[in-house]
Amino acid sequence: MLINGPIRHQLGLNCTDNLFSPGNRANMTIGRALRLILINVFEQRPGILDRGCMGSLTKFGVCIGEDEERSPWEPFHVSRGYAPEDSTVTVATIQDPEMLGNRYGQTGESILDATADAMASHGLAVHFNETQWLWVAGHWHAEMLGRQGWDRARMQQYIHERAWRPRSAYKRLGAIRGGLTPEDDDTRVYAAPKPEDILIIKAGGDSGIYSELIKIYYGLLAHTTRIRIPDTA
Hints:
Layout: E1 2-4, H1 7-11, H2 25-40, E2 64-65, H3 76-79, E3 88-91, E4 98-100, H4 108-121, E5 132-137, H5 139-147, H6 152-162, E6 164-166, H7 167-172, E7 188-190, E8 198-202, E9 211-216, E10 223-226
Parallel strand pairs: 1-2, 5-8
Antiparallel strand pairs: 1-3, 3-10, 4-9, 5-9, 6-7
Helix pairs in contact: 4-6
């Protein structure tokens, strides 16, 4: 769950330091509450309706906020058509995050190339044709990209064009079924179907030069909706 808008402050949601770590009551309580609903209401229990092979640490419940105040880009929910004063939640089924440790790059292209390379490796082409991605750009990566004039649309296009491998490479790694064919070397397998499937937010602390890349489970697109607070007056 990704939270945007004023409600982040009303709830005391963590958007910066130790973003994915335990220790903040709002983040952990909301994430855990949803997981308990899935378990107790929908029987999403291991071996029953939850047939995950390895499972994921993310199943404990992940709830984060975007660091809108220090972002060089418009808030994520604004990019999805909502007003800045709206509060929204974006919900997706995710797989394990991967840390991007581009610590020494001096250009936005270096950061984006590292992101594209990680996307092409993450999951090794399993269900790429139906996959969305969430790139949580860390503070110093976002700062450099913003300072060098990179906006969301341009970053999405750049990453999409470079996040691919030839089909032959994936077949050699056992990620795609079938034997090698002559055309495999010239057939590109893209990590994301289109640029808009690479969702970009700014979040995390400023104590290191890192970002996080998260693969959204295939066939289940991220959905954003407005949070409506009942009038208790």
